[in-house]
Amino acid sequence: MTEKIALTPKTHTTPPAKFSHGVRKGNILQVAGQVGFLPAEEGRPPTPAGPTLREQTLQTLANVRAILEEGGASWEDVMMLRVYLTDVDHFAEMNAIYNAYFENLVEVPAARTTVYVGLPAGLLIEIDALAVLG
Amino acid sequence: MTEKIALTPKTHTTPPAKFSHGVRKGNILQVAGQVGFLPAEEGRPPTPAGPTLREQTLQTLANVRAILEEGGASWEDVMMLRVYLTDVDHFAEMNAIYNAYFENLVEVPAARTTVYVGLPAGLLIEIDALAVLG
Amino acid sequence: MTEKIALTPKTHTTPPAKFSHGVRKGNILQVAGQVGFLPAEEGRPPTPAGPTLREQTLQTLANVRAILEEGGASWEDVMMLRVYLTDVDHFAEMNAIYNAYFENLVEVPAARTTVYVGLPAGLLIEIDALAVLG
Questions:
Q1: What residues of chain A have any CB closer than 8 angstroms to a CB in chain C?
Q2: Which stretch is the leader sequence (chains A, B, C) (predicted)?
């Protein structure tokens, strides 16, 4: 019997609903959809890193990474990233930010699917991730 | 060689297309996108549980669960739920129904991504799930 | 330590961004979102197989399959296909093409979720896939 573990890094609040920011069971790690909220501060409501796609993309990637690390994983272990954008015209800029962010990644980068959906007002990007630990 | 098994609970009709409601292979179980159709009855076309988000959310969760159980899994084994809504304004109500539904879940709840997409007319919610058995 | 391998079939160009068309690690294989681009030719920009849903669906399935095969997998190993359409009215036609394509599949077909999202101009369908090798 392999135990399922909730992944709640210090930068994240306990989720307001009955879900986890991430879970790990055996060698499988799943990161829930992350958005560009700043690290949690007590008494402050969830606050986006800023209004721009750049600010939100970098913060979202940092939030995904915090959960991976909480579960003992790193970008190298990620198999799939799902990127949800709200505007097709954001693709080129997101891609440039993404490429720069992963520029020094030595290992094989993850597969990725980018689709265009709705998100709550003010949020421009959401990312979730599936990792398989070595 | 591990066998792949189709999961078709009694509450579900055989899919009209060449896909399965769920599949299990080894310890991985994938539930296909479920919507709020009532348990199948011969001669009746697929019928939503009702027009409201509450009715459809509870029926959708029941449909996901039936497939999990058909594969020998339970909510405790679920790593990720993807919730597709059609309206950002439905989030709070869905979340309240979801939290009440999982209130007595002892184990770590699954990670979750909620996005806003289109669905066929009359359908307000769709959910798919990935589980890893213990 | 299991190695992660990038899957880049000859029909595909090296991705323009820091992601892989597919990755395999151990017995898990993930195919990134594929669209209906024709096999890559040097000096030609990515070109859809045609303007119709039929042309794009068949090409997209061929592109998913090429990545599966590059990783030593086949349709039989696929657990989940995610189909992204841009128009609810395309469902019936996509389903008919899909069913004909998989008509001779002996094994259990994959689970599937179909949702309606935005895609870049001219693209009508995108598909990604998760496979578990035997």
A1: 27, 76-77, 79-81, 88, 91, 95, 98-99, 101-103, 105, 107-117, 130, 132, 134
A2: none
Residues of chain A with C-beta less than 8 angstroms from the C-beta of B81: 19
Q: Which two tokens stand for residue C73?
A: 């997998």
Q: Which value does ipTM take for this structure? A: 0.95
CA angle, residues A87, A89, A93, in degrees to nearest 5: 110
**Which of C12, C66, C32, C83 lies closest to A112, judged by CA?**
C32
Tell me: the pLDDT tens digits for B72-92? 999 999 999 999 999 999 999
Query: What pLDDT, in 10s, does the model give residues C1-27?
Result: 689 999 999 999 888 789 999 999 999
Q: Are B31 and B67 in contact (CB under 8 A)?
A: yes
Could you give the count of Cα atoms lying within 13 Å of C104 in the half-sphere of its Cβ? Answer: 0
| Closest approach of A109 to chain C, Cα-based (Å) | 5
Place of tokens 């303007």: C51
Taking an 8 Å cut-off on Cβ atoms, the answer to whether C30 and A81 are in contact is no
Domains of chain C, by residue range, sit at 4-132
- How many Å apart are CA B93 and CA B87, to the nearest integer? 11
- The topology (CATH level 3) of A4-132 is 60s Ribosomal Protein L30; Chain: A; (3.30.1330)
Closest in C16, C17, C119 to A116, CB measured:
C119
pLDDT tens across A84-104, in order?
Answer: 999 999 999 999 999 999 999
Segment C88-126, tens digit of pLDDT: 999 999 999 999 999 999 889 999 999 999 999 999 999
User: Worst-scoring range by mean pLDDT, A76-80, B61-65, C103-107?
Assistant: C103-107
C111 three-class SS:
strand
Q: Which residues of A touch C84 (CB under 8 A)?
A: 113, 115
The rounded Cα A130 to chain-centroid distance in angstroms is: 10
DSSP calls for chain B: -PPEEE---TTSPPPSSS-BSEEEETTEEEEEEE--BPPP-TT----BS-SSHHHHHHHHHHHHHHHHHHTT--GGGEEEEEEEES-GGGHHHHHHHHHHHTTT--SPPPEEEEEE-B-STT--EEEEEEEE--
Cβ–Cβ < 8 Å for B73, B133: yes
